[in-house]
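Bug #77: duplicate submission created two jobs. Keeping one. Sequence:
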Amino acid sequence: MGMRGNGADGDTVPEDQEVVSAGLGAFEPTHVSHKRVEGYLIAAAEFEEDGSGKVGVDHPARGYIVVPVPPRFLRNPGDVAEGDYLVRYEPTDEQPHGYLSYSPRAVFEAGYSEIVPVEHRKSYEGGGRGLTFGQALEQLKDGDRIAREGWNGKGMWLALSGPLAGREIAAESFWSKPCSEFACLNGGSATVLPCINMKTATGEILMGWLASQTDMLAEDWMVVPADAA
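Kept job's structure:
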């Protein structure tokens, strides 16, 4: 039960890592993670010498479950502390079920923000809890309308103008003459990337809304129902 390991594939750090990293000099970040993962708190674990074993986790929907892990899950089998994370990465063509890893709790929680379940999102009907700006942006990217409770204007909300990857628009469909002319020169169309639009209190759609410092630090964001005015 428990397994403070000397290192696991993925986000964990071997005990001898200082010897390896010392030659790199001062820490200078070169990448920022944008992975989506499932993270489950470890309640118990048992491992074999080859690094395989069983990990008991607290699943938010299924309760306590035992997950078998493959050989070499830990480079050096040992004990992992309760409260650390079993991590499953998003499935790919090469890993259709997603690959498993292990991360110390402090490392995991410093690198990932929780995705708020639908049933906990705040809406004009009430219930759930307020969202941070970062959490609200995740819902925005999922296609939801979002708003702040603190906004004074009635019926205001934000939404993305289109898909994150952009949308190919024909030259004749552009409102802007310069954009239409560019699309003509670009083979008859151009890719339009999304922006954040606002439905104003007076009933217009404002393209290209920008967040204030107050908006970014607020924790009263909520998801607005699609049938709201």
